[in-house]
Amino acid sequence: MELSNRETWALIHGIIVGTVFILAFAGGLAGLWSLRWDLVTPEGIRERLRRLQVGTWGMAAISWIAVMTGTYIVYPWYRATPPEGTTDLSDYPRSLLLSDPGTDLWHKFGMEWKEHIAFVVPILATAVAFIVTYYGPRLADRPLIRYATMATFTLAFAAAGIASVFGALITKAAPIL
Prior knowledge:
Blueprint: H1 5-33, H2 42-79, H3 93-98, H4 104-116, H5 120-135, H6 143-173
């Protein structure tokens, strides 16, 4: 099995970076949830907080990498315009999707989500990392801020998850070869 350059970048963007994002989210959410004085000693809070800061900043960085590789490397291949008179649209995924009324919504809704809403993910992930760094051990004393941070974290994950599902389905319908 051999992957083309485009397939390799799509794999890096979707599978590798996406998997790291999911793992970072799971660890970060568990870390935020358990950052409570009734569960951990002061020394335990400091130790968990260090991990949480590294994890949330790592998640923010990986979400920026996912959005940037998708926007500036993979997306231009998807959006390429076929030359005038081209009838075989298999090398032009956007045009292929739009040419069929049965698949045009994949572009009109799914790709629009990926183009616009997906940019919210790294912004929210960066906000979470900033909150964790700014509040530090005070997050254990302030459950409402911790819950709001977990909600922001979950919103970032949900938006990324929806974008991932759309990406997989769009790639299935019109692969970037």
